[in-house]
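Structure (tokenized):
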């Protein structure tokens, strides 16, 4: 057999997702890199990079400058730096420490976190760089650290060791110069792969011969393309082409081989794996972008407060107020003669005074909350643990936790995402005859859809069930194919299966004990089928050969591929089974099976030798090698004779239909983007409950008779024009029908199915808007025969065109672009490697875990973060406005109301812990309820908890409470006296007011909580106690460095007055009274859905045991009820819903619309009627049956 290494499969379906990146220092050099093996002095001239790696962001010199630069890129941190500088000027009414201390604390926490993470990276780099590798030195193998390895060195790698750099494979202890490698660190695939050294270098396994080796390597410059390599090895006057089959990449490990010898070609950060080690594109959540707008609003409020104060100061200042001492030589800041200067300086004074309106600890608190949510809750959720693969969910970033609670569109791959990617050979077609008697899950779903009966599927005695093979047909099994009318065609079919692949054999050379290592489950299934049909191969055949020479001299080209590829390369004559095989392919596709076509071609010796010369030249080319190989392959891959086709089943993952149905009830729209055929995609959508018979389906396919006729004429321009015209016509017609359905409000749900060729034209700028409008009106969209680029384009269509929040989920390398294009990318750690996981934001093992990820963790995170941000906005605004009212009261003098340390520690000590606890532990309903009532998720899609209306409520509350905080203590303090009979002064009233602020804002947070734990109570109580401990120490200790001597013993004097205790009790009550009434009334008249669930749980858990009389009566009513009318059925359905009771839960009440939420959950229509508040207010609990109460009046309300 001759070897033909196929590298032109990129055109057949393998799409390179990364653009080739070449280091800048290599660009100025010639078009290739020259490496001298075993010749260090010659290589030194090229100044190749060393093999030491550093993945750290900082070093000892750059940590502080670079770290501070990263921190001050945040607008809030830069703002507080400017405030700290401004507070050091004479115009500042506060001491610089007021702003420097909190800024220093925030920066310190962030820098310590950066240093901790960078130290872990440094330690990891240190271990890797110190690893030992054997290098050839003076005919001996010497162990040196990886960091000292240089380009051109010859190294020896032993079994189970990792390759220290990118190596040219020279020799192996295995026969025929082969070795086995595992690439799990590179792409996540655990299947072994084979590499084969050039025959010219096999003898270099010996150290003495290796030391005499002086070969020259001419190859491409370092780049990040993992699956390509172009180069030549020059030994003497012989030039040998080098392909990816001779390259061993850093990060891979040696398996099933004693040792190998290789030459170093790329080192350190120039290795392919390191050049691919780039960060996932930075993503910011939608809520975080809205937070930026909130910060701008706070800046605007700050500007208005400062402008008002500046104007007021310029107007108020007058020499008629003789007690102010505004004499002629007064400072310019207080000179009434120059009011403009007074206003300008006052403006900056107020900027420093009101700087606390921007919460300095907000970002640090949110980061801490998100980090704990990710590491402790998402990563440790047992409901998302996959026992079979021992895989937990993984939050690869904590920046997007709350984004999971606002997803509206999900874009999903099919194979390995909705299905298991565990392929089984299920059916086949050979010579126009269909074989295989099994029934697929998709067939069963299609039968349920159409109502067609399915016969019983009884296995025969000849059936074999093993990994990759689930075939049953006695006509082929146990050698039965020899009795078929076309045994020679069957033989060619099985030979093609056994020869045309990249599978590696392991184990003993017998069909029962041999094990195949395949790069893909499809390949493994096909080879397993060949083995079970009696055609198996073993270790003597270790290379992929698609051109074979038989002992009788016959040359045959075997080829397998997608039907679209094989059919266009068929011979015009001799393909008698072409049409019948197409029908079989369509049937297999309709049954949800993955298909491949198998074909062959007999070659003439002269033709082959002429072609082989061109092939060898293409293999040796240093430039455009892949393109040239592809062109050469086109010369011989034609005039094929179709043998048959295979059909492989990929079963649905467990729980996929239920998950999709639940997500759809939550208001999410799910699109499937797949490379499968139209029929396969539609049937998968039916099996997944994505599409139903009740939907109006728009199918836009290029597989029409008119388009096929144009294609047969062979004019690509005319074909493109016809397809574009067809797509335009179908899109406009479908859009008109969708708009009519929406206008008439028929309630008919819509679904769109479109193939890749039509999608290519639909994404053109002139049709893009029409496609978007149609898609937005559809509940489900299925795109089939799409490329990875089209997947990303469809995702961007909704993300950028409709401004909707999107999530993409996939498991393979072809899903990476789609995952990175969406707001949130989810990777499934499946059978196709780890590329999708490595590019994702979150990783799960099964599609069904999306239910917990979105409906539980995503919704909780959104509600928590929204509540935290809103609360920060409220507490800082109320605190700052108190100072503003004080300055209005004192003629806009710029006098501070609170002590410097009070203002400094307000955010970082007295109110910091409770809000973090709420962000971590608060939850409105349990995880079980979140999944039981998925409609709760719609609040996140509608952004119900972080919009301008919600913020306005907090804003009004802050204004109201700030007025109470200021005017109550001041008004009461006018007549209050201490124990010695003296009136209370400024610092006495300010201390009382600050005490009221700390108590009130902490209690207000408890009112906002939905779920109280011991940590909530501990955090609030400890924060209040921390304030009292601080003020007792601060007021009781006086030093020479103390700027504010007026606070000395203030708290001790206040504690002895009734005024202090009365204010501390009254002010929080009056301040929170407005919030209490608002929340009670809102919960009564306009409750959130989760509040209805809370009322339901409160009622059922306390007063509705499962065997209560009410439930007994309900069961008896169901049993005795005869045939019911439509209205009676509706009333009965309503009666079965959770019952309403006036159960008091703290300060909240049940809703007049209580039953309507559960009616919506159960699909029961409820007629609209006015809310009878008086009836509900007077409603009494139902009597038991033993009391003889009639329930007819109770049921009449329905």
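Design, position by position:
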């Amino acid at each position: 057999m001759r070897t033909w290494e196929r590298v032109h499969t990129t055109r057949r379906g393998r799409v390179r997702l990364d653009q080739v990146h070449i280091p800048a220092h290599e660009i100025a050099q010639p078009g290739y890199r020259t490496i001298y093996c075993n010749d260090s002095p010659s290589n030194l001239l090229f100044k190749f990079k060393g093999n030491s790696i550093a993945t750290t962001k900082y070093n000892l010199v750059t940590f502080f400058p670079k770290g501070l630069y990263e921190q001050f890129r945040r607008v809030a941190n830069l703002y507080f730096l400017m405030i700290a500088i401004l507070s050091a000027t004479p115009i500042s009414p506060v001491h610089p420490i007021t702003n420097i201390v909190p800024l220093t604390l925030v920066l310190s926490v962030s820098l310590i976190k950066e240093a901790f993470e960078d130290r872990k990276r440094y330690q990891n780099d240190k271990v890797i760089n110190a690893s030992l590798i054997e290098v050839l030195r003076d005919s001996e193998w010497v162990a040196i650290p990886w960091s000292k390895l240089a380009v051109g060195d010859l190294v020896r790698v032993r079994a189970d060791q990792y390759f220290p750099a990118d190596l040219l494979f020279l020799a192996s202890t295995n026969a025929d110069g082969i070795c086995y490698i595992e690439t799990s660190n590179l792409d996540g695939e655990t299947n072994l792969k084979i590499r084969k050294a050039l025959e010219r270098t096999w003898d270099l396994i010996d150290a003495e011969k290796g030391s005499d080796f002086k070969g020259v390597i001419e190859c491409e410059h370092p780049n990040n393309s993992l699956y390509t390599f172009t180069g030549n090895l020059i030994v003497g006057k012989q030039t040998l082409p080098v392909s990816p089959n001779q390259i061993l990449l850093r990060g891979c490990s040696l398996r099933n081989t004693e040792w190998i010898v290789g030459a170093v070609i790329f080192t350190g950060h120039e290795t392919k794996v390191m050049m691919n080690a780039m960060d996932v594109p930075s993503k910011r959540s939608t809520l975080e972008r809205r937070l930026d707008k909130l910060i701008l609003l706070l800046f605007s409020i700050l500007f208005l407060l400062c402008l008002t104060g500046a104007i007021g100061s310029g107007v108020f200042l007058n020499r008629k107020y003789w007690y102010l001492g505004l004499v002629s030589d007064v400072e310019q800041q207080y000179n009434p003669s120059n009011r403009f200067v007074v206003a300008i300086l006052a403006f900056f004074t107020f900027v420093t005074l009101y700087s606390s309106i921007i919460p300095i600890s907000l970002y640090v608190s949110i980061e801490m909350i998100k980090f704990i949510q990710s590491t402790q809750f998402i990563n440790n959720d047992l409901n998302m643990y996959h026992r079979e693969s021992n895989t937990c969910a993984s939050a690869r970033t904590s920046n997007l936790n709350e984004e999971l609670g606002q997803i509206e569109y999900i874009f999903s791959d099919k194979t390995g995402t909705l299905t298991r990617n565990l392929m089984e050979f299920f059916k086949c077609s050979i010579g126009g005859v269909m074989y295989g008697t099994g029934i697929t899950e998709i067939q069963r779903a299609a039968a349920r859809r159409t109502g067609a009966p399915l016969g019983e599927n009884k296995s025969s005695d000849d059936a074999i069930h093993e990994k990759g093979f689930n075939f049953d047909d006695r006509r082929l099994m146990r050698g039965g194919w020899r009795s078929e009318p076309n045994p020679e065609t069957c033989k060619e079919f099985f030979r093609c299966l056994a020869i045309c692949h990249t599978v590696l054999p392991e184990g003993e050379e017998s069909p029962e004990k041999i094990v195949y290592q395949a790069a893909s489950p499809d390949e493994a299934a096909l080879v397993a089928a060949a083995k079970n049909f009696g055609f198996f191969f073993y270790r003597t055949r270790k290379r992929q050969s698609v051109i074979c020479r038989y002992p009788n001299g016959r040359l045959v080209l075997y080829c397998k591929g997608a039907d679209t590829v094989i059919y266009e390369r068929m011979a015009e004559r001799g393909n008698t089974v072409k049409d019948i095989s197409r029908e079989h392919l369509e049937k297999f596709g309709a049954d949800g099976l993955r298909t491949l076509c198998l074909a062959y071609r007999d070659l003439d010796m002269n033709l082959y030798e002429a072609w082989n010369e061109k092939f060898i030249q293409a293999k040796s080319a240093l430039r455009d090698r892949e393109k040239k190989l592809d062109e050469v392959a086109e010369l011989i891959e034609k005039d094929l004779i179709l043998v048959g086709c295979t059909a492989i089943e990929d079963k649905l993952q467990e729980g996929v239909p239920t998950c999709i149905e639940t997500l759809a009830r939550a208001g999410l729209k799910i699109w499937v983007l797949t490379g499968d055929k139209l029929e396969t995609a539609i049937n998968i959508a039916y099996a997944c409950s994505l599409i139903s018979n009740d939907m109006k389906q728009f199918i836009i396919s290029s597989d029409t008779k008119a388009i096929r006729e144009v294609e047969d004429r062979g004019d690509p321009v005319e074909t493109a024009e016809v397809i574009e015209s067809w797509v335009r016509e179908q899109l406009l017609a479908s859009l008109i029908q969708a708009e009519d359905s929406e206008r008439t409000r028929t309630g008919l749900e819509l679904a769109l199915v479109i193939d890749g060729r039509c999608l290519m034209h639909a994404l053109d700028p002139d049709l893009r808007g029409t496609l978007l409008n149609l898609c937005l009106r559809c509940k489900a969209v299925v795109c089939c025969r799409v490329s990875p680029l089209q997947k990303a384009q469809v995702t961007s269509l909704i993300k950028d065109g409709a401004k909707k929040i999107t999530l993409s989920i996939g498991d393979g390398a072809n899903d990476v672009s789609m995952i990175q294009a969406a707001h949130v990318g989810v990777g499934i750690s499946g059978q196709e490697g780890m590329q999708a996981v490595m590019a994702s934001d979150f990783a799960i093992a099964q599609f069904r875990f999306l239910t917990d990820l979105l409906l539980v963790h995503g919704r909780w995170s959104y509600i928590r973060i929204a509540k935290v941000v809103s609360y920060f906005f409220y507490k800082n605004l109320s605190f700052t406005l108190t100072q503003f009212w004080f300055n209005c009261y004192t003629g806009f003098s710029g006098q501070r109301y609170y002590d410097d340390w009070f203002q400094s520690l307000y955010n970082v000590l007295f109110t910091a812990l409770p809000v973090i606890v709420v962000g971590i532990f608060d939850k409105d309903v349990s995880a079980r309820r979140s999944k039981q009532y998925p409609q709760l998720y719609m609040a996140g899609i509608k952004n119900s908890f972080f919009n301008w209306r919600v913020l306005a409520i907090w804003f009004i509350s802050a204004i109201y409470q700030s007025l109470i905080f200021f005017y109550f203590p001041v008004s009461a303090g006018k007549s209050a006296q201490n124990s010695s009979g003296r009136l209370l002064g400024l610092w006495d009233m300010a201390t009382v007011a600050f005490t009221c602020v700390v108590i009130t804002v902490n209690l207000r947070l408890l009112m906002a909580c939905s779920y109280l734990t011991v940590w909530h109570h501990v955090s609030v109580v400890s924060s209040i106690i921390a304030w009292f401990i601080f003020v007792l120490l601060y007021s009781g200790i006086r030093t020479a460095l103390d700027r504010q001597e007026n606070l000395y013993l203030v708290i001790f004097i206040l504690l002895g007055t009734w005024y202090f205790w009365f204010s501390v009790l009254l002010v929080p009550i009056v301040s929170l009274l407005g919030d209490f009434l608002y929340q009670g009334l809102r919960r009564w008249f306009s409750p959130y859905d989760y509040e209805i669930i809370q009322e339901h749980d409160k009622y059922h858990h306390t007063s509705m045991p499962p065997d209560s009389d009410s439930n007994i009566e309900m069961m008896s009513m169901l049993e005795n009820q005869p045939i019911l009318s439509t209205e009676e059925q509706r009333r009965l359905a309503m009666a079965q819903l959770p019952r309403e009771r006036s159960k008091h839960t703290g300060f909240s009440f049940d809703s007049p619309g209580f039953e309507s939420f559960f009616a919506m959950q159960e699909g029961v229509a409820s007629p609209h009627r006015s809310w009878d508040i008086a009836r509900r207010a007077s409603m009494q609990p139902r009597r038991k049956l033993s009391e003889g109460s009639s329930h007819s009046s109770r049921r009449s309300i329905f």
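Reviewer-requested clarification: The longest strand covers residues 419-430. The chain is about 45% helix and 15% strand.
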